[in-house]
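Annotated sample (chain length 553).
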Amino acid sequence: MKRAGILILALLIVINTIAQKYDIDTIFYNGNIDKHFNFVILGDGYTNNELSKFVTDAFNFTNTFFNEIPYLNYRNYFNVFVIKVPSNESGASHPGYATDEEDPAQPIIHVDNYFGSTFDTYGIHRLLVATNTFSISNVLAENFPNYDQTLILVNSPYYGGSGGDIPVASMHSYSSQIAIHELGHSFAGLCDEYWAGDIYAGEGVNMTKETNPFLVRWKNWIGINGIGIYQHCCGGNSSIWYKPDLNCIMQYNLPNYHFCSVCVQAIIEKIHSLVTPIESYEPLNNNTTVTTDSIEFKLNLICPQPNTLKSNWSMNGSLIKQNVDSVVINETSLPSCTYMLSVTIEDTSQLLRVDNHSTIHVSSVSWTIYNPLFCTKTLSVTPSNKEVGPEAGTTAFIISSNTSWTVTDDAAWLTISPTSSSGNGTITATFTNNQLKIPRVATIIISGIGAIPQSITVIQSEPTTVNLLYDLNATIYPNPTKDKIIIKFNGSMVSDISISVIDELGRFYYYKEYKEINLEKEEPIDLSSLKNGLYFVIIKSTNTNKMYKIIKE
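Output written by the structure step:
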């Protein structure tokens, strides 16, 4: 209980500390951070005078990392940034109490570095771990909260590193291989292909008990590039576990070793699960009316190198073009009211041999195209734009039509009634109070059979005065919970807040920022993926913080 009390005290100290901002440098940038995978590198044991060395070390690692297949092929899917956090002292601690140390030349030293990086963790000399998880989480949350993967480079020339959620690597000559190996765990969920011990054994993309070549999870690779079903070494329980390769970097994190075909495929699948190759498309409106003789539909793609993306364009289910980024549709080719144009993008890389290819490696966009020359049914709405005040209220729109129609909207603060009818009619929009400091906008779409859809824009103005709630008293339920929690604030408005969920070690599992949040509705948080145990919900605003204990069972 004493340990738990100290931990809670530490948490309270951390969440009430004013976060510090640090300089961020870009190693390389391929595009919008919302459309790419954001890799953030932190440095530990670099003093202020050594931060330029840190950037160089990070740059050199990045070059090595993206020369490794398949990262080389999918480099365009990534952005890489560094956060320059200075340490008071240079290097990493080496307490000297590991029993397996083979390098007596490494001096015993205690270093005042920012993230607490130290050798000899758990009595293993080469296990270099950044122990200050609170500082890691805070630096990321306050400086680059939308990161996807982090790596810590430690300013030490001695061999060492570790895996986990945030891999760590030293600046030993083998450091890049250490980091690539550890990122295999953290990024793609790969298992060690050396025998790491019974505690680490389990079914994974590159580890199994299955010995049937027709059933093993890498069955499509058997007999190709040296892939087989190889028994783990060392006797005991290791004899019932198998791996796909004998020379993978997941077994030897040394120079001249690379990912085996099974691990390469797993990494690509992870990349595809996080980044769609369709970065953007035009027109942005997926309901498009032909107003000229022709209209161009085009994609902006994030392409692997070499480009293995193949496109299939179809109109109403019939293939019309292949392997092009754009098509032009002529009005004369649309002799009826409504058409559906679709394009699918498939990654046909030979590095992939999966059975469920279309569920992971195919992306698509569709447009509904209307040709007004053949849309004989009429549909119109008055007015098409409406400005309303910040107070709750209603506003009406008149529909003139000779067909059946339906209504949809994109705003939680507005409801429509009725949502469907036919012929002439009136719809009513009911809206809530706007307590934000900015206007808010809703779009209402009326779609009719055989008619061109109509849109309405509703703009609700901001209030002249805003009462901000800085008392963050909240109710969190259910607690204990099995899958999710609901946060209900005792008020209607909060400005500049963040909500985090962390475990007892300070590791972040959820983080979201709100510049302005309307709290008329409850805020749900999905915890279904978390292991059972004790967690803390931290709610921070400009001038106060609250922490709530929750149990996941």
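Annotation: Residues 20-188 form a domain with the Collagenase (Catalytic Domain) fold (CATH 3.40.390.10).
Annotation: Residues 51-65 form the longest helix (15 residues).
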